[in-house]
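Entry 14. Structure prediction run on the chain below.
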Amino acid sequence: MQRRYFITLFGGAAFAWALAARAQQATKMPRIAFLSPGRSELSDPIFNMLTAFLQRLHDLGYTEGQNLAVERQYADRRSDRLPGLAAELVGRKPDIIVAFSTTAALPAKHATGTIPIVVVGMADPVADRLIASLARPGGNVTGTTFLGPEVSANFQLPTFWVERQRLPDRHQS
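Output returned:
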């Protein structure tokens, strides 16, 4: 009788331990990294874009520190610092890198070929060798460009749709 009790107790404890371990495994918190050639000051327009971007994520249900991890790197208008900052961000293994301008995108692209990079405000992504072509960008870089809408429409819409799928709207669940 005590043997059965011991086996039942031991088996139940093992099962409860497995359930507790599974419950403690929280879902992975999305990590976004921002790479900016500008400064972390209110007077910097890139800082204001970042603030607006984070506000929109908050509106979608993502709150920094609660269900979203945010890494920021500012080059303080010293482009020579960007390669080191990009390498540092890649080392932190974010889910996505948001680069503000071609100036920040190039070092990010050189630092990783696997982490998706969304560039806000590229000049000419093909000429700058960020993508292969507008029709078939390939690689891990997407974003907005200064090219005219008749040229850039094929590049912006489909690729942003793909990136949107990485961070679904929390209100849809």
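Confidence is low (pLDDT under 50) at residues 3-25, 152-162.
Filed with the rest of this week's runs.
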